[in-house]
Amino acid sequence: MNMNELEWIPATDGDETEYLEIAFGGDGNVYIRENHKPEKVVVTTETKWDAFVLGVKAGEFDHFVEGIE
């Protein structure tokens, strides 16, 4: 997959200078990178991404951010 052909979606409300970007490749994969390190891309499947999103919505990862403001 050519990373330049992907439509990267920024995960920010516009105030952050560093944030994650995500792209759906149309090939069954999801691509994730940090905006300030665009050459380093993590690839996962859409199925695993969907499971992760469901876990976030269910609060399964909340303990990782307890006490962080």
Round the mean pLDDT to the nearest integer and report it: 94
Q: For the largest beta sheet, what order do the strands appear in spatially?
A: 1-2-3-4
Taking all Cα atoms into account, the compactness measure Rg is: 13 Å
Count of structural domains: 1
Largest sheet: number of strands, sense, barrel closure: 4 strands, antiparallel
Number of helices: 1
Helix content: 10-25%
Helices and strands: which structural class? alpha+beta
State the assembly state of the protein chains: single chain
Number of strands: 4
Low confidence ranges: none
DSSP strand (E) fraction? 25-35%
InterPro entries: DUF397 (IPR007278)
Domain DUF397: 15-57
Protein name: DUF397 domain-containing protein
Walk me through the structure.
The protein has one domain. It has 1 helix and 4 strands. By secondary structure, the protein is an alpha+beta fold. This is DUF397 domain-containing protein. Pfam families: DUF397. InterPro entries: DUF397. Residues 15-57 form the DUF397 domain.
